[in-house]
Structure formats: C-alpha cells, structure tokens
TrEMBL record:
Protein name listed in UniProt: non-specific serine/threonine protein kinase
GO cellular component, one term: plasma membrane
GO molecular function (one): protein serine/threonine kinase activity
Classification via Pfam families: Lectin_legB (PF00139), PK_Tyr_Ser-Thr (PF07714)
Main EC class the enzyme belongs to: transferase
Superkingdom of origin: Eukaryota
Residue ranges of every copy of the Protein kinase domain listed in the record: 327-639
Major subcellular location class: membrane
EC number(s) reported in the record: 2.7.11.1
Family, per entry: In the C-terminal section; belongs to the protein kinase superfamily. Ser/Thr protein kinase family. In the N-terminal section; belongs to the leguminous lectin family.
GO biological process per UniProt: defense response; response to other organism
Keyword Signal listed: yes
Record keywords: ATP-binding, Cell membrane, Glycoprotein, Kinase, Lectin, Membrane, Nucleotide-binding, Serine/threonine-protein kinase, Signal, Transferase, Transmembrane, Transmembrane helix
Organism: Marchantia polymorpha (Common liverwort)
C-alpha cells in the first residue's frame, strides 16, 4: 500500500533547463507498494474499479465469462488523499506521471469507450457507461476536470477523429487536442502493454503526453498543449484513472499495471540564483532591522511625527495592508488614466492593474500578485479642513474589512486631487436593474439584498454611517450566461467618501450644510426626511436608503421614475397607494420571468416601505431586516 508521500525539502535535482524541488512522490504496482482499494486504503475505488487477483488495477469487471455484466459499466480509481498543487512560495507546482496500461477488447471489432488519466477537484464518479465514467451523461464536467483520454470508440457527435486516438480534455468530453495513436505505431485496443508519460510544466504552462510500447521515454511529445491548470483548479486535486463500456457489445478490459506520480516546484536557473541572492540580502536586511530596533529602544519616549500612511493602518491589518500611493504610481497602474469606466459630476473611475506583495516580508520574492482595481478620482479644496476630512475617510476605510464591502488597497492625495484604490468588480446594481438587456433573476435579487444587508449590519456594529446607500454604489461581480441570464456571484457596498464614524455614545451625526448636495447625489427619494430637513444622519437614515434600494430591486424602477397611469411622482408614494388598494403584486418588476414566489416579492415590498417610515424611530433595525431577508433565501421560498 502507498505510504505517506515523500516530502523532500530543498533537494535539487538537475533536470535539463530547469531546477526541480520535489514535494510529493508515490508509486503503485510494485511488490513494495501494490494497488489497494478500501475505505482506509491508498486508493478510492468507485463503480466497477477493483484490484484483480493478479495485483493489477481494473477499471471494469474482470470476470470474462459473463459478457452481459459489461453493459453500461464504468470504474474510477483515485488517490485517497488530495494533492495540493498550489505552493505558497512558488505558485502552482509541476507534475510528472508514468504508467503502463492494457486495453483488451472482448470482441476484436468492438472495443469499449477507453480509459483516461484524470485530475478532479473532488472525488466524484461520472456517468456509468459513457464518457469514461469521468464526466456527466452529457459530457460536461461535474467538478473541475482534466482528462488525458486513450479513446477506443469514435463518437462523431463530440468530434472524435477515429476509434484509436489520444486526446486532452478540459472541463468537457470534447477534446481540445487529439491525435491518431497509429501515428505512434500503437493500437490502443490491441491488447499490448502501453507506456504513457504525462508531464506538466507550471513554468511554461505546457502539458505534454508521450506513448510508447517499450519503456524508453520518447524525447518528443506525442501531444503538447498550452494551458494554465491554475485557472482550472481552485484547490487540491485528486488524480487517478477512469474507464467505461457502453450499452452495445463493445466491451473492453482496462488494466493499470504500474503507476508513479511526482509533483515538484520548477524554476529557471536565473530565478533560483535570484532567490539565493534575495535570501542573502533578506538576512542582511533583517540584521539591520534588528540592530535598528535595538538602538531605538532608548528613544521610545521621544515625540515622533508619523506620515499619514503610518498612523492609518489598524492593528489587525490583513495580509494586504492598504498603503499610500503616489500619483505617478497610479498613473502607471491605470495606463495613464486611459481606461475610464465611469464618470459623474463629482468623480471619475478608472480601471487598472495593481501588483502587490502579499504575505510577510520573507515571501517578497514569491508573494507578488496582480489585482484588477478601480481608481476613484475627485477634486477637493486644498485646505487643512479638506485634508482632515480625507484623513477621516481613509481611517474609516482601513478599519472596515468585510466580504460584502469592496476591498480597499490604498489612497493618494496630492494638492486638490484625491484618489482611492479598491477592488474592481464587473458591474453595478444600477446598470443591472435599469440598463442591462438581461434581467436579474429573483434569486440574484434576494442575494444582492442579503449581501448589502450583511454589509450594513457589519457597519452598524462598527458604528459607521455610510450615507450613500444607492444602486450605483452596490457593485456586482458576475458573468453573463445566455442560457441562465445574468448570474450575480457577489454584491459589495462601495464608495465611503461620505462615511462617518459615530463617537462613543453618539447616535446621530449632524451636517446640515451639505444635505442639499447629498440629496442630489443620492437621487430624490433615497435620502431620509430628517437628513434633508435637519441634516441628521443616523443608522436609521442608512436603513431608509436601504429600504429605497429594496423597492428599486423588486420593482425595477428608480425612486424618481415617472409612474405610468399614476399621479404619483415618487416610487414610495405609488407603492403606498398599491398597498392601500391591496394590489402590491402589480408593482413587481414585469421583467422577472424566472420562477419566484409572489408572496416573497410582496413581503420585500412591505419591508422596504417599513424602512421608509417618516419617523426614524419606527423603522426596523438592520438586524430585524436581516432576519426577514434571510428567511426568504431558504430553499422553501423558491419554486423548483
């Protein structure tokens, strides 16, 4: 049985152009390490996979006297424990595997589907009797899947070139690349022992497949394909084999006789040399830092004037700490501010690519990562008061870290120019509701409401007022799928330029001088009456704005939209009339064609109207709102 994978630390092996650092290695099919299927064994076997009396791994039933048992069969054998292909220091790992196999057809002219070497995101058996037992019955992946197929049955509908080919499949049964095995002098279903080698270089992002009848590894690959496996797999990977027989008298015996597998970090000699040099430099820098810390102990009581970036980061800063940028850096990240994605009267937003180091100082050579970011720019007065307001905003931004609030990367202020850098997201709620051709599904709308509710509950605990809760400040990260509509994956609250942290014991924040300006920014109907009249902002004023967002999500109408066949100008007044006439269902967005419960939509409309109570003391709290919205996300509230 297989023991614990060999972990070889700092063992360098000469391998042509690249250095190699082996991290995991195992072998099956020898006297010392035989194939072994069991719950606690080294192999997880599903379907018809079994270990025969001769010690080989079979992917189909091995009783050759009962051909009827071969109809619609499939077997899969994977290593019991997943292999971590991601390294914290060097990124994705390379791998190399060598195995021998035999395909013996029961009928000379009718071999089965074939077998495949598979890499899966989890231990899941595919459809029996087709697609090698690795994909679903329609040929699509069930989990993240990569397969190198040795195909002995031609399926014309999926583009098979013949009934004797080697192919590479990514995420579906349709091969991205394939080649006739006879070009290598091999008949896959000829009953001979075939050697196969599969190598993946993470450095060059190249997958290579080699086959041969003897055990000498060919110099040139039989198949070669460029692919970044790190884009396919998001976590650990299970590796192994799968094979199947179909519904006709096309039966084969699939045997794996020997298998060895190895993962390793791969790097060019220059990279390794730079790593060694950086290690030496790092040790030198650490010595200097320690000496500096030792010398500075005597000066801890002296006053010290820290720059803005020194005093804004919270003690519990994440691995990526927000920092201060220069305008030259931001100009470089945004390609000279050429990619503008949004512009209003007060702000301009540009898309850029930011390269930041993640992790501690010692990982500086290997911990760099690229992020798509949005840079928000605006102009303010070049005064001490404006500088204090900007610093207060940055203090608030650096203190909020939540999954439903856009990640904050840093800031810049030079003269009257202000910039904040946050994560880039593909769209916003305003566009999705009022401008997009594809309508948000009901499930997506409820999820958006819940995500922003979570964000506001988090701000409530931190005693932070947002003061700009509106559709354009709710960003969506999603993809457009023609068959399913616009699939929202995440909603996040953005734009904290007007956010304010309440002091100890404070329940309101008063700023009457700017109420009119904010009213225009929030769009008429989204600002609480007490904020417009007296400049009073509180948790309840954020609740009011959130209620306005709920109504817009359910109705698909802006707060200031003209209502057809109605004397009302404001959306909320029109909805109150509908409520009094007991016909709130007429206000539901007619573009909602996905299955949903009308009662749930009406419940959300009533909840939104409760949030818009003129008396702020009669509005529900964010916690109450969260519980009500959460109840609508339960499976029983959705039509199957």
């Amino acid at each position: 049985m297989m023991g614990t994978p060999n972990l070889l630390i700092l063992v360098l092996i000469g391998a042509g152009w690249c250095g190699v650092l082996v991290t995991c290695e195992f072998t099956f099919g020898t006297d010392a390490s035989p194939f072994f299927c069991s719950e606690e064994g080294s192999l997880w076997c599903a379907g018809d996979a079994n270990v025969g009396s001769n010690g080989v791994l079979n992917l189909a039933p091995d009783d050759r006297t009962k051909p009827q048992e071969y109809v619609q069969t499939a077997g899969m054998a994977l290593v019991s424990s997943p292999i971590d292909m991601r390294g914290k220091l060097y990124g994705w790992k390379s791998f190399s595997t060598h195995f021998t196999f035999r395909i013996e057809p029961m009928y000379p002219l009718g071999p089965g589907d074939g077998l495949a070497f598979v890499m899966l995101g989890s231990k899941v058996k595919g459809c029996a009797g087709r697609n090698f037992g690795a994909f679903d019955c329609f040929g699509w992946q069930i989990v993240q899947t990569v397969a190198v197929e040795f195909d002995t049955y031609q399926n014309i509908d999926i583009g098979d070139i013949n009934a004797n080919h080697v192919g590479v499949d990514f995420q579906s049964i349709r091969s991205n690349i394939s080649r006739d095995a006879l070009e290598g002098g091999i008949s896959l279903a000829g009953g001979e022992v075939i050697h196969a080698w599969i190598d993946y270089s993470a450095v060059y992002e190249q997958l290579e497949v080699r086959i041969r009848l003897d055990g000498r590894k060919p110099r040139d690959p039989f198949l070669s394909y460029s692919v970044a496996l790190s884009d396919i797999f998001s976590g650990p990977v299970y590796v192994g084999f799968a094979g199947s027989n179909g519904g006709c008298k096309c039966h084969s015996f699939y045997s794996i006789l020997y298998w060895t597998f190895q993962t390793f970090w791969e790097f060019r000699p220059l990279q390794f040399l730079l790593a060694i040099i950086s290690l030496v430099v790092l040790l030198f820098v650490l010595v200097i830092i320690l000496l500096h810390c030792y010398r500075s102990v005597s000066f801890t009581n002296l006053p010290k004037e820290n720059p803005l970036s020194d005093r804004l980061l919270p003690e519990d800063s994440p691995a990526i700490s927000p920092r201060e940028f220069s305008s030259r850096e931001l100009q470089s990240y945004t390609d000279g501010f050429n990619h503008r994605i949004r512009e209003t009267k007060s702000i301009s937003i540009y898309k850029g690519t930011l390269r930041m180091r993640i992790g501690p100082l010692w990982s500086s050579w290997f911990g760099w990562k690229k992020f798509d970011v949005a840079v928000t720019a605006w102009t303010t007065t070049n005064s001490i008061e404006a500088a204090i307001e900007f610093e207060s905003m940055i203090c608030t931004l650096t203190s909020v870290q939540h999954g439903n609030i856009t990640r904050f990367f840093g800031w810049c202020r030079e003269g009257d120019k202000c910039f904040v850098v946050h994560e880039f997201m593909r769209g916003d709620l305003e566009y999705a509701l009022f401008k997009s051709r594809q309508s948000l599904s009901w499930k997506d709308r409820v999820n958006v409401i819940f995500d922003i509710c979570e964000a506001l509950c988090y701000l409530r605990k931190r005693r932070i007022l947002h003061r700009q809760v509106k559709p354009s400040n709710i960003l969506l990260d999603g993809v457009s799928v023609a068959e399913q509509g616009h699939m929202v994956t995440k909603a996040k609250l953005n734009d904290f330029r007007l956010a304010e942290a309440l002091g100890p014991g404070d329940k309101i924040f008063v700023d009457k001088s700017l109420a009119d300006e904010w009213s225009a920014g929030l769009s008429f109907g989204g600002l609480a009456p007490e904020a417009v009249k007296d400049g009073i902002f509180s948790e309840e004023s954020d609740v009011y704005a959130f209620g306005s967002v709920i109504l817009q999500i359910v109705t698909g109408k802006r707060t200031e939209d003209t209502i057809p066949n109605s004397s009302h100008f404001l959306l909320c007044n029109w909805l109150v009339e509908k409520l009094e006439n007991n016909c709130l269902e007429d206000a539901i967005d007619p573009k909602l064609r996905h299955p949903f419960r009308q009662d749930d939509a009406i419940a959300l409309l009533k909840l939104g109207l409760q949030c818009l109570q003129p008396d702020r003391n009669e509005r529900p709290s964010m916690l109450v709102i969260k519980k009500k919205v959460e109840s609508l996300r339960l499976p029983h509230s959705l039509v199957s």
